[in-house]
């Protein structure tokens, strides 16, 4: 029987797929495709082949297709599965297990918890989960016991369980006593058994140390765990009780006889008796042999060993021989194998003295008749190896070894027992091994040395070690002595070290090039040696050439120039760039220049350049230009902007500040929101910074009613007016209500000083500045004399005095009253330290000398009085005490801060005392008493005023985060309370009914028209202040105005998702209400503060004007023009992927619409153009021009053999596209199923069409020849067609199939169907198969 080339593989595929079905517990309802398997089915089953002419009885269906096993058979591993299709399946164990532990209430460590799942217990569980990787779930049982479910890998679960028991369960302890010698069995090898026992029982087991005589083992854990652990420990001890240990003293010399050759004898005894026998190794000087095992078997083993010992002691004798110490190792052999070999052959033990002993005596012990043979073998072993040496200059050693030991490997592979040793610095090579092998190896090495000496040479040259690293560059590791190249300390930073290596990698490395070019080895000493000698080894001619080139390089390096470039250290990091990117670019531009930056710790500005003179000069200019750009871009100015306007400068989502940054190309830094600073810092080019500053100032000017005044003060006075660290000018700005005073940049020569702020404060600051300038500039007769007109600057006199910081507020006085009085009386200026100043005690007095002296005397007198501490008391009604001590004594803290730190003590609550004690400086105490009296008077004169404002306006009145109310409270010194918010108040219109004799006025609803309770705001304080506060509150009530806006513009004002109207509301701080679309109303309501309404209305009307202008523009753009064009030209007008029509649209700014082919009612020859009238006409002309060109075109059909179409079209149409572009024609090939598959249409101008047809006909002729040749070749290669069989094949026939039964509704399978019997590997259309769903 003839079989196919690989029938088994196909049958295996079929069998495997059926096997998979068998495990799913399903039987096939139809047979598999066996047509392809027929030639070889007879080799694997009882199915007969049907190839023979005589047909035998067909097999039964069950024989051909054995039934699949039941599902249970696949799952039960113990039972043998039924049926020939099945196979044993190994169950897969889950790697994740789950265990549940229960902790009874009485053993819970954390019982008292407010809420389950919180507190220390939850923290511990989280820690256990993180540490072990197991998953924990806790639940509380009805008996308050704790159930813990632990999931994870077995090891993780066991560790988690141990931690749970140790940390969540109360611990008990118990001891168990077992013999001391059994402790080591509880511990196990490397403590593994003890760890395993602790994990299993979730306990802690403490075993006493070996030097501790105690035999008590302590077990700590839960009661259950302790019992388990105790049981396990006692079991281990009981097992060891059955075993015995015995020690037998045997002379060390007889141990080899007991062990036997290669330990065979002792191994046999151990195997036969089951006893463990421990013989100390030869290196350990101990004589006892230890036996461990069952008592009876141990006794047998001891008896056998004793017998061997006694026999050997009687029969053996010894002889001593002298063997050279160097030959002892050959007698011993590798791992002592030679000694074991002698013992095995002769039964004689050879004793070798220790390696640290100087003795050369070797003792042989054995039976007298065998000692001779053993002695012969000892001498043979000793003389089997020899040591020899070969003279070879040390510099040649590396060449003898070869690259990666290649040369030496050839010798050692031939003679593996020969050991070759090279000693550094010595001119010899040592060989050691078998005598014959050593001789052969010696000859080979000597010939190698002779050859190398003949053709190799070396030379040493002196080059200053400073230049070595430049010669080596990177990859210096190729030089044996230059593995480490140390950079100079100046390049010690991480970035520069990285850069140095990266730069070196890109440069041409002199040493590597010389080595490769001249085939020599160049050995450069490391920097640490500071040696100047460089050694060159190799071919004599190459050595000389390398020497000459290296000396030339060194000479060139000596002529190189080193230049120090001064660059401020703050720019170094910028020049280097992130990860060295920028410095790498510079190094790439100037590869011959070495750039060294100083260590940041040195605080040096010197950058060193080294290289050829011209290159160094070019690099210097380049870097100087880079630094100049950096300096220009690092110009910085500070712009003081009132804090309340910072949010407007930032804009919503940072839009404003982002726009200013981008347009001015500057960096703008604003102070933090919680900072007191008002200064905005702008960094960049000077012109850009000035532009950004102007824009920021214009925003502030637009938002606030600020005045700006320019004062002319001579530039030479500016520094003295600003004062040390700006203290003087800061004092003026604070005194004048926080105005901003801007001096011109130092060195600009400008005399203009700008003062910006509220009008009154600006005028005040202007006067003070001018007054100060007059003080600085004095001259007798400076104002009247023409000839002697001069300005004489007098030196400003300054005095510093000291006072405790807590006195400062008292010295300044309320609202600066006291200090202003001193200044007015003396004319001197007094400056107190700012919060950021380090010295908080220092007070500076500036002015004319006599004025300063007088102010100094007055201040010192005040300070002296403050240092005079007194104690006083006053009476305060207890009903007022609470006001002073509430809010953690805030009122008392304010009094202490304002009046020099005076201490005010009120009596404790509960006592009825009205005595209040004050302690501090006399003046401070008096002032504090006066202030307390004022507060009491305010409290007694306090009234409550109601202000009715509808509840819907309360949120607006409060302002963001209550800022407006806080401001009113501070300004008027009152308390303001808002009512609770009333949700959906319901007002009853019915009159109240009098019940049970209640008076008519009680319990009734408020009269109609009276304010609701939820509308009333309560103000407490002095009457006049309450009235002022009420007026301020009423001024905050929003007002609504209406603006007429055409209804059709409403949706544009609202904007996409409300963005437009939201922007206007944020900008003008108002609420804009647009009526609902169904109302069709033109009225838009604007609600807000009166001050904002006008701006909002103007903004809204401006927006309306913009939208109306846009509408007019849209109307102009909506001009429509139709042009009639034959539909056959439409594709050409559109162009490939719409390229032509897109260009027309963009060029003329119009929209062009082609007719819809699916719309039958629409004229198919009308093209609609929409846009400005002028643009639509231009677009129409462009389309008509294209049509005119198309009308001149002709179409010709050319017959082209369909077999060459694919070749002419090319991959993805590249070839035909090239032809069309070249001849400016359009070529259309017939579609599949066309009546004439050979007809190709060419369209274009007549002359182009003719040329294109000629070209493609030439291509057809060329490609057709290839096609004919290919078809002829295929005819020869095609296998001969055999005649069909005379009789029709019946296919594969089986008896008793399900579809043959009379009651069966099943249909016999169609053997010819590729769907029911698909070929292996063939693609079949998806179909629901009877074999089950496709997986």
Structural summary, described in words:
The chain is of the alpha+beta class. 42% of the residues lie in helices and 18% in strands. It contains 48 helices and 47 strands. Strands 1-3-2 form a 3-stranded antiparallel sheet, with helices on one face. It has a 3-stranded antiparallel sheet with strand order 4-6-5, with helices on one face. α20 (494-506) runs parallel beside α24 (581-589). The radius of gyration is 54 Å and the shape is extended. The chain starts with 6 loop residues before the first helix and ends in a 58-residue tail after the last helix. 19% of the residues are buried.
In short:
The chain is an alpha+beta fold and 1335 residues long. It has a 3-stranded antiparallel sheet with strand order 1-3-2, covered by helices on one side. It has a 3-stranded antiparallel sheet with strand order 4-6-5, with helices on one face.
- How many β-strands, per DSSP? 47
Helix content: 40-55%
Structural class, please? alpha+beta
Percent strand: 15-25%
Termini separation comes to: 37 Å
Summarize the biggest pleated sheet: 3 strands, antiparallel
Query: So what's the overall shape?
Result: extended
Spatial arrangement of strands, main beta sheet:
1-3-2
**pLDDT averaged residue by residue:** 77
Determine Rg (CA atoms, Å): 54 Å
Question: Regions with pLDDT < 50 over 5+ consecutive residues?
Answer: 1-55, 71-89, 474-508, 779-795, 985-1006, 1282-1287, 1321-1335
Q: Number of helix segments?
A: 48
GO cellular component, one term: nucleus
Coiled coil: 845-872
Domain K Homology: 170-238, 242-310, 315-383, 384-450, 455-555, 559-628, 633-701, 705-774, 795-864, 868-937, 941-1038, 1039-1105, 1117-1188, 1192-1261
Organism: Sciurus carolinensis
